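Open question from group meeting: does this chain pack into something compact, or does most of it stay loose? Before anyone orders reagents, we agreed to write out a predicted structure and look at it together. Recording both the input and the output here so the notebook holds the full record.
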Amino acid sequence: MSKVIVLAVDAARHEPGKHVTAAVEMIKDLAADTGDKVVVLHVHEYSAGRYGRIQVDCQDGSGEKLVSEVVAEFTAAGVPAEGLIREADYRHVARAIVAAAHEQDARLLALGSSSHHDLPLVTFGTTANRVLHLATLPVIIVPMPAASAN
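Structure tokens returned:
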């Protein structure tokens, strides 16, 4: 059985987001216990239109920077890790995440949920929801930590 966990990270909204931090902490603990290697994945999203193909997910270099920082954090904790960057057409990020997990022969796919909804049973964002429906391997979706009450 493969000893690889793919952790998908998103640099689009936060630097780094609470959802990324929560997922990193959970997977760091899990991989340290199991001896798994972690592949930190970021997928750049592109839209094609009248003026060509443009990146719509984050600023240039921020995905690579986030992946490097997360890989360094895993490495510092004694967890073997490597980074991976992929590209996807607009609204096909989930497919690219699942495909990368299969390419890596991952036994587990993880990502943080960056969405909060008023409906208590709808806690996942669009990408997380699509990953759940497309994946044929176990998926861990780490919720954002609850805001502390002041």
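Observations to bring back to the group:
The longest helix spans residues 18-34.
Residues 9-114+127-142 form a domain with the Rossmann fold fold (CATH 3.40.50.620).
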